[in-house]
Predict the 3D structure of the following.
Amino acid sequence: MILLNLKILFVSTSYPKDDLDWKGRFIERMLCGLSRRNILLYVWAPSGKIPDNVKYTVSGEEKRWLDKLSEQGGIAHKVRSGPFQAVLWGSGLLLRLRDVYKRFSDADIYHVNWLQNVLSIPDNKKPILVTVLGTDLSLLRIPGMKSALKRVFKQHPAILAPNNSWMTPVLEDNFGSVAEVREIRFGIDDLFYNIERKISTNPRIWIAVTRITRDKIGPLFDWGESCFSKEDELHVIGPVIEKIGLPSWVQYHAPANLSEIRDLWFKRASGLITLSVHSEGLPQVVLEAMASGLPVVASPHPSHREVVTHKENGWIAGNADEFHEGIKLLSDPGENLLMGLSARNTILNICGTWENAAERYHNAYTELMERSKK
């Protein structure tokens, strides 16, 4: 039975400030889906456009601090910047979250995004649902972190909810004795499923929609140098996070909003390329591209293999020869459209829409509340 009017405190340290900001875009879509459920939803996150029926619950000082953290790359970037930055910003985050959880001692459930954000939860037995991303697994390498997280989970009914299954064994090995691990897939906006592609053939257009870092780009520039020409253009779209140097044959575009990526780029491109070696969960742009009927050429990262089946709904490339072979195959419009249709059906079956995702989260809320009463 679904419980109505649950009071949910939703915590995130990432949120898009506007339509061109890519940080935490999936958080905004998740909130949109949840806002249409019959719950009382309060959000603590950096500032941005908050959906109707959601209460923004950040003080002035917290807002300034969160916005500054977001502008400087987020807490994960601060942790990677060295021990001083990690301690400075990490302690600042935990102190502020401690106050937030105290303010919301009457919440029914804490829905927390990213593992580090549970560390300040008091021992009040409140149920916790944690959305776990791939970057969280790097956090577990910090000495003492696993023990600290276990101490929190032991005191609360808890569900750890990775958005794809490749993280499940790691989470179960570390926390299966103190929390349930349940994959809860993100959804896709309905408009992606309704795209009718009109592939550009003169020239063919290939896109990489990504934050530009060494790990996110991977070997793309090395493998693509002999592959892209006047007949096959590579367009890279996204914010430059690391100055790694873009080859002259790459056509770079600043970050685009969601509707531009969907209605302009996904419609005419021959494929989305993601050769990322970054330790992440499944990038939302991969799911959105496949939902649009756009085939994906991907590295063999476990997150990509969750949805991309080689030669069926996309292409997995582990070396330069395999990459070139995939580009050649998908240059054929007939093969491209067939593979794209298979990709769309895959995502529709395993992800559905954000309404479906919100229902999955709401079901988890209800189960947590039932456990808390035992």
